[in-house]
Amino acid sequence: MKQSKMLIPTTKEAPKGAEALSHKLMLRAGYIKQVSAGMYAYLPLAYRVISKIENIVRKEMDSIDANETLMPAVLPAKLWKESGRLDTYGPELFKLKNRHDTDFILGPTHEETFTTLIRDSIKSYKKLPLILYQIQPKYRDEDRPRYGLLRSREFIMEDGYSFSIDDEDLDKIYNNMESAYRSIFDKIGLNYRTIIGNGGAMGGSDSIEFSAPAAVGEDTIVYSDDSNYAANLEMAKSIYEPLQNKAEIKDIVKLSAPNVNNVDEEVKALDTTKDKLIKSILFIADEKPVLVMVRGNDEINDTKVKNYLCASELTLANDEQIQHFANVKSSYIGPLDLNKDVNIIADNYVKNMINAYVGTNEDGYYFANVNAERDFENVDYNDFRTVREGEISPDGSGILKFTRGIEIAHIFKLGTRYSDTLDANVLDANGRQKPVVMGSYGIGISRLLTAVAEQQSDENGLIWPKQISPFDIHLIPVNIKKDDQVKVSNEIEKELLDNGYEVLTDDRKERAGVKFADSDLIGIPIRITVGKKATDGIVEIKIRKTGETIEVKKEEVGSTISILLKDLK
């Protein structure tokens, strides 16, 4: 491919507003172009990378007998209304109407669509298990799209769905899918972790998240420094170490502390420390009130609370709701003498607190010397706090460390969450109707460009792994006005193409410095420079990743390239 014939609009500077390194480099290297906020055009180089990623995905899906399909991106809203997600998915859902005033959405994911396909197509367990997948654009109306392809409103995704007659088959497919995803990311050349993930709006039970460590990552990965434990911060746990406070238990005392609005003001007003406070926060879980308590120096983990309650929706109570259920300002709410309609749950560490402070449900007052085991009734205890770095890993091996990561894939065991709702049943071996057992699996294809670019780049530009690089070799005749350089370049290009290599030849009438700078920016693994020594049949080969250069005779180019690419990851 001649570079003069390709659309590769390189620039020296990234446009204003580009923050992430990957975003800046892909814009500067002419891989992507913003069309509108959160919407990008994939230019020829980027599309070649995406195509190679998709082909790797297809080969791995073939290996586990997954069937590729393609569903519409515009979906009838009634399906999502049936599943209950039309109202619970949130404001990121694109909603629209057709000329007949029928409601539709732009698909952010396709559980409902695939479930109804199986419902209408499969009637017997003998046709199961079955795995279907697709690769297509998805749509989420991000409030603040940022970091280029990392958080965009339109993105390319591989989403797969499995259908089984029982949990045993689901487990096999789930494990096979995990192995296939690992193989995909290994072949791409990505550094990644598998971590415990949260099903979120997907529903379901077990889930594994694949995360690529990167400074720009919006997720926090919690991992042990001495074991394989790793989890998303939302799901991370640590060893529970009960408090060993042997202080004498005192009688409850009511204290005046007016005009307190937050924990810091509470500490000052009561002349105490955060670890002696019980922080009480009122939530609304599926329209029902629940009071959640943690130590004053801990943060409530909304995801753990939501999962514990099996709630579809969890929100902080507003002032009106707090007044209705507690008749008090939020900073003075507490578990004692609280409206009986309010469910009360507390973090494990609250149970062992000695002589703590808590709100009285009366404005301006707190109770001192509160002891959970003595004073609380009808309180359920569990892990509802966000872990902190340095705590002991839940497997007892090592301490917890934090790092940033980009979520690149997620797999879920959905069970019968969607088949129950959408009546996707089959006849089992006994002739009885049984809901199909489902799994859901997804890879952020376009996100992978960001993840790789973040991990494999330098101050000069991108450094693509050979498996997904837009081309194998960048061939640069320094001066196309020199017949000897053009002749040698043409001979090398023909040999490489005949041997199955993908070659980008820079035939532009540009200065050598411009060509070399663009080459580093574009990031193709191997560069061959045909310069002044072309007359002697000698060219220079440069490895983009290491910067190493060697001179070889033109007759040795093919064998040298074969060795170099074999050694590259």
Automatic annotation (TrEMBL):
Domain Aminoacyl-transfer RNA synthetases class-II family profile per the UniProt entry, residue ranges: 33-465
Keywords, in A-Z order: Aminoacyl-tRNA synthetase, ATP-binding, Cytoplasm, Ligase, Nucleotide-binding, Protein biosynthesis
UniProt subcellular location: Cytoplasm
Enzyme class: ligase
EC number: 6.1.1.15
Record's signal peptide: none
Gene Ontology molecular functions: proline-tRNA ligase activity
Catalytic activity as recorded in UniProt: tRNA(Pro) + L-proline + ATP = L-prolyl-tRNA(Pro) + AMP + diphosphate
Assembly with partners or alone: Homodimer.
Entry's free-text remark on domains: Consists of three domains: the N-terminal catalytic domain, the editing domain and the C-terminal anticodon-binding domain.
NCBIfam families in alphabetical order: PRK09194.1, proS_fam_II
Protein name: Proline--tRNA ligase
Originating species: Apilactobacillus apisilvae
